[in-house]
TrEMBL record:
Alphabetized UniProt keyword annotations: ATP-binding, Kinase, Membrane, Nucleotide-binding, Phosphoprotein, Transferase, Transmembrane, Transmembrane helix, Two-component regulatory system
Shown chain mapped onto the complete sequence: 141 to 287 of 287
Transmembrane is among the record's keywords: yes
Origin superkingdom: Bacteria
Protein name listed in UniProt: histidine kinase
Length: 147
C-alpha cells in the first residue's frame, strides 16, 4: 500500500522527542511534506523508530539528533544523524548482524538485544531500499536510507 512517509517520520520524531528530554528540543526534524512510499506502514515505522532510538540512546543525554527526509527525483532519502559515541570502521560491518552489540563498555551502559538494526536491514531489503553508515563530524554516526 502507499504510505505517507513524511507523516510517519513526523509522527515518530514527535513521539520520541517527548520521551527523550522533557521539553528540550533534541530531535531536530527537517521533513519534506507529502513523500509517498509503496510498502508496509507497520514495518517501515519500526525502521524509523529503531534508527532514531539508537541515535538518542548512543548519545549524551539531551544531545541533538538530526532527522531529515527529502525526495530527489524518484529517490527518497531518509537520514538520522547523531553526535554520539560513533561506530569504528571495524564494527560497522557487524552492527546489522543478529544480536550484535558493540563493545563491553557500551553493553554495560545501555540496554538492548542487538536486534534493532537486524530488523531494520530485513525490512529495508523487503522494500528494495539501501542503508549506509557514515561517520558524523566532528563525532557521531549518520545512517542514510535510500528508497
Ligand atoms: P535493540 O535495538 O535490539 O534494543 P541495540 O540498540 O543494542 O538493541 P541495534 O539497534 O541492532 O541493537 O544496534 C547494534 C549495535 O550497534 C548497538 O548495540 C550499538 O553498539 C551500535 N549502534 C547502533 N546505532 C548506533 C549509533 N547511532 N551510535 C553508536 N552506536 C550505535
Ligand atoms: Mg537499537
Amino acid at each position: 500500500a502507499e504510505v505517507d512517509f513524511s507523516e510517519l517520520v513526523s509522527r515518530i520524531s514527535d513521539r520520541l522527542q517527548l520521551h527523550s528530554c522533557n521539553t528540550q528540543q533534541i530531535i531536530k526534524a527537517d521533513i519534506e511534506p507529502n513523500i509517498k512510499i509503496y510498502g508496509d506502514a507497520f514495518t517501515l515505522a519500526s525502521v524509523v523508530t529503531n534508527l532514531i532510538e539508537n541515535a538518542v540512546k548512543y548519545s549524551e543525554p539531551c544531545a541533538e539528533v538530526n532527522v531529515s527526509l527529502r525526495q530527489i527525483d524518484s529517490k527518497v532519502v531518509f537520514v538520522v544523524a547523531d553526535h554520539g559515541t560513533g561506530i569504528s570502521d571495524e564494527e560497522k560491518m557487524f552492527i546489522f548482524d543478529k544480536f550484535y552489540r558493540v563493545g563491553a563498555e557500551n553493553t554495560r551502559r545501555t540496554k538492548g538485544t542487538g536486534l534493532g538494526l537486524f530488523i531494520v536491514k530485513e525490512v529495508l531489503q523487503q522494500h528494495d531500499a539501501e542503508i549506509v553508515v557514515k561517520d558524523n563530524v566532528p563525532q557521531g554516526t549518520i545512517f542514510e536510507v535510500t528508497f
